[in-house]
Design a protein that fits this description.
By secondary structure, this protein is mostly beta strands. Strands 1, 5, 6, 7, 9 and 12 form a six-stranded mixed beta sheet that branches. A five-stranded mixed beta sheet has the order 15-21-20-17-18, with no helix packed on it. Strands 14-13-16-19 form a four-stranded mixed beta sheet, with no helix packed on it. It has two domains: 20-183, Immunoglobulin-like; 192-275, Cupredoxins -  blue copper proteins (Immunoglobulin-like). It is globular and about 50 Å long. The protein has one helix spanning 15-19; strands at 62-63, 79-80, 88-96, 100-108, 111-112, 124-131, 134-139, 143-146, 152-161, 168-170, 173-174, 176-183, 192-199, 202-204, 210-212, 217-224, 228-232, 237-241, 245-252, 257-263, 269-275. A hairpin with a 3-residue loop joins strand 3 (88-96) and strand 4 (100-108).
């Protein structure tokens, strides 16, 4: 599955895009550290960087994610920061559809390690880079390049990880920065759309399995009265919905099977997706 096709549109309706501070060409560079967002939950799928998903620049050293090298289930599995200086992460995205998109993380406190280093050294490590909730690369510099993305809103997230690939946390939350940005162009309509409402502890809107055909572009909109992480099992997608707001996740249904889409923290099933 190509990363540019795996487009989880972290499009928080209404205030979210305004609060991110978009500039005149649709790019956004505001970030927080740490945020209350999740990185990917990955108890069911492995994500690696596809060959055409990014190209290394001279100052861009990256590697693919090993199948058993990292768990990204959120801050509960992260290790408290132990470096000498409290870290910060600010993420910005720039570029255009022709040249591609540069994700730059302005990081303080972390010392980048050598990719061959696997033993933990306090305050040392690398980054994990996510686009639209999907892991795309590990990075050993502050910059990485994405060569191709579909038109529409996107979100880049950068987390800090130790040499042994465990996430760093601070005050019980993952250390990360995010930036929302927009790729110009016409967004193709989805083949199938679903809408789910989560209110007062229960989900409504989709009765029974949500059946889609293999290869369909699927859009799932979740409205929630609580802040939660929406996890698409099997597709390695994790994205956050804010309290009282909506989240739209868009991806290509190119993995056959039956997959639960749930609220990660509470374990509430939103949709059972059947791809065939």
């Amino acid at each position: 599955m190509k990363a540019w096709k795996l487009v989880a549109l972290v499009a928080l309706v209404g205030l979210m895009m305004a609060a991110c501070g978009s500039d005149s060409d649709g790019q956004t560079s505001t970030t927080t550290m740490p945020a209350d967002e999740h990185s990917d939950g990955s108890d069911d799928a492995t994500t690696t960087m596809p060959a055409d998903g990014h190209s290394d620049g001279s100052d861009d050293v990256t590697t693919t994610m090993p199948a058993d090298g990292h768990s990204h289930d959120g801050a509960n599995d992260a290790i408290p920061w132990d470096g000498p200086t409290e870290p910060t992460v600010e993420v910005s995205v720039s570029g255009d559809p022709e040249s591609g998109w540069d994700i730059v993380a302005d990081i303080t406190g972390l010392t980048f390690s050598d990719p061959t280093q696997e033993e933990h050294v306090p305050g040392q490590g690398h980054t994990h880079v996510f686009v639209d909730g999907a892991l795309v690369s590990m990075g050993y510099s502050e910059r990485m390049h994405i060569s191709e993305l579909e038109p529409g809103p996107h979100q880049a997230t950068v987390t800090l990880s130790r040499n042994d690939h465990l996430d760093y946390s601070l005050d019980g939350e993952l250390i990360k920065g995010t930036a929302d940005f927009i790729v110009p162009g016409e967004v193709a309509p989805a083949d199938v759309t679903f809408s789910v409402m989560y209110m007062d502890g229960s989900a409504s809107g989709v009765d029974g399995p949500a059946v889609v055909s293999f290869g369909d572009i699927v859009e799932i909109t979740v409205h929630s009265d609580v802040a939660e992480a929406v996890h698409v099992h099997g597709y390695d997608i994790m994205a956050d919905v804010e309290e009282g707001m909506s989240l739209t996740i868009r991806f290509e249904a190119d993995i056959p099977g039956v997959f639960d889409i749930e609220l990660e923290e509470s374990g509430v099933l939103l949709i059972s997706l059947e791809v065939g």
